[in-house]
Amino acid sequence: MGLSMRKVIKNIKQLVTPISHDFAAGDNVKKLQIYEDVNIVIEDGVITDITKKDVDCNDVIDASGKCVLPAFVDPHTHIPFIGSREDEFNKRIMGKTYMEIAKEGGGINSTVRAVRNATFDELYKAAKKDLELMIKHGVATIEMKSGYGLDLENELKQLRVIKKLQEEYPLDIKATFLGAHEIPPEYRGDKEKYVKIIIDEMLPIVKEEGLAEYVDIFCEKDVFELDDTRKILSAAKELGFKIRIHADEIYPLGGAGLAAEFEAVSAEHLVKISDENIEKMIDKGVVFNLLPGTTFFLMSDDYAPARKILEKGGIVALSTDLNPGSSYTHSLPLIMAIACLNMGMTMEEVINAVTINGAYSLELSNKTGSIHVGKQADLIVLNAPDYRYIVYNFGVNRVEKVLKNGVGIYNCF
Ligand code: NIG
Ligand code: FE
């Protein structure tokens, strides 16, 4: 026997996992596998057994009366950012719209000013705080993106912050370049020029430095429209980037169709997606990454058509979209509650969405997102006997422990 590290989570009242090893859609997304009174054996960070037999081990977590789930995956956040926009939030409560505030110079561009003014260390510290809050709410795998720099120097600053987080934290962290998040103030009257800078200057350097695996675009009316999106996606694909797109969030522009055409890994938001583009995305296996926190926080009634997508067999993931403007929450459990209560998803569907389907959308479902022998021991212990408490006890964080590769990264007590 070598010096392998062994750990057991014992007496688990309820162990819940997606059935699927890769992604859950169709009949599988409605199901979960549930074990009662079992132990999980972990060796060198990997799940090696799920058993009812007593296991002898010195390193034990007692989960009597508790529920164990795969740790959550958040495949869409806007970490790193700095500063806050509670003033805009108040204006929105009093009736201004998100796009009106953006046109007055607020919105994304107010966070751009804050990020440009911040040093690398300030931005890193802010990002660390956000990441730690996410972990407390059960996340052990996450996507982060640039998009608040909007010039070469500051986009690189954001991506280097992500790189440092990848080096310092044991989490799986995936990086996305979102230089096309907004038209920066200095190019307001000359969007073409900015698109050219993204294509000719930013994309090649981001690629050369290996700072991002994905390229994303805020494809939206009055921001980057279909022709801009097409140009940027073609250039990104040519350089070997994979694609994720903010599509059809506010106006039904048809970005989801481009996501299918360019065989994006995922398309995000999709509030206004057309039936035709739902079919196209399903045909190409593009993940429907829904972000209902945005609809909720922007006080809109328009939710993405989750039921329709699920019934047609689409692969649905859910994310916080954590950002200071349109969805300021670090809580995937809250997003799960919104998805159930306002989009009509079942509790089983949301668990699949934030575990195996999130992992699939980050191309990591071979190693995380479900509790199967051979996968990383990325797990959470709930301070509750049943997985349904996560949504049922809305607004309360029931996550008590988070393990990444078998190592505790959060412990509530
Ligand atoms: O995903 N829609 C564009 N981007 C973000 C909002 C960013 C912001 O308001 O700062 C989103 O909702
Ligand atoms: Fe977003």
UniProtKB/TrEMBL annotation:
Binding site for Zn(2+): H76, H78, H246, D321
Cofactor detail note: Binds 1 zinc or iron ion per subunit.
Domain Amidohydrolase-related: 68-406
Swiss-Prot/TrEMBL catalytic activity: 4-imidazolone-5-propanoate + H2O = N-formimidoyl-L-glutamate
Keyword Methyltransferase attached: no
Key words, A-Z: Cytoplasm, Histidine metabolism, Hydrolase, Iron, Metal-binding, Zinc
Annotated function: Catalyzes the hydrolytic cleavage of the carbon-nitrogen bond in imidazolone-5-propanoate to yield N-formimidoyl-L-glutamate. It is the third step in the universal histidine degradation pathway.
Entry binding sites for 4-imidazolone-5-propanoate: R85, Y148, H181, E249, S326
PANTHER family, sorted: IMIDAZOLONEPROPIONASE, IMIDAZOLONEPROPIONASE-RELATED
UniProt: Fe(3+) binding residues: H76, H78, H246, D321
GO molecular function: imidazolonepropionase activity; iron ion binding; zinc ion binding
Gene3D superfamilies, per database record: Metal-dependent hydrolases, Urease, subunit C, domain 1
Cofactor: Zn(2+); Fe(3+)
GO biological processes: L-histidine catabolic process to glutamate and formamide; L-histidine catabolic process to glutamate and formate
A Pfam family annotated for this UniProt entry: Amidohydro_1
Keyword tRNA processing (UniProt): no
UniProt subcellular location: Cytoplasm
Pathway annotation: Amino-acid degradation; L-histidine degradation into L-glutamate; N-formimidoyl-L-glutamate from L-histidine: step 3/3
InterPro entries: Amidohydro-rel (IPR006680), HutI (IPR005920), Metal-dep_hydrolase_composite (IPR011059), Metal_Hydrolase (IPR032466)
HAMAP family membership: HutI
Protein species of origin: Deferribacter autotrophicus
Tree of life domain: Bacteria
Protein name: Imidazolonepropionase
